[in-house]
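Contributing new records

If you add data, match the layout below exactly. Sequence lines come first and carry their own label; structure lines follow with theirs. Keep one chain per record. Anything else will be rejected by the validation script.
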Amino acid sequence: MCDTASVGHEFGVGRNKVFPAAKARSLLNPLRRLVQPPRRIVDALDAAPDARVLEIGCGPGYFSPTLADAVPHGEVVVVDLQSEMLVHARRRLPAFDHVAAVQLDVTCLPFADASFDAVLVAHVLGEVPDRARCLSECRRVLRPGGAALFAETRRDSDFVGRADLRTLVEGHGFELERVHGRSWEYSARFRAVPAP
């Protein structure tokens, strides 16, 4: 059992703050699809149709319907710190019976070891106060050889650059496989390295 009592979350739009649910609609702006189509991110994850996938910090579900489409014979678990974000996400997912939504702190995941085939972390890692603990939890619930995709954009005040992301993620049992995009907007796919 995790102890998250010491983890503090500050809400707001600035750096190192959790994006507030009150502004969730701005994340669903249709113009966002012109510069960041969800299909591009989900395709980079390259999950099998029967995969069990965890979406960390799903927010209002911008990527969630596309992710659910990509694994029609699998399961998607979307998680967020804010229940209000999950309300928005559920509204975007009514046709999918293989999606579960769970409110939780991503530094303490209530899932069994090696219980997911893939993890998606899109534009949220910079908001997590204890990134190391979040990444350790992601690795713990991911099966050996499973994929973790991290997406980042400079449009986010919590942007994590490629070199910093690689150093941070590889320090927690992952190995970089490939990077798509430009330095200011990219996705990086990592493989969970089997424990020695």
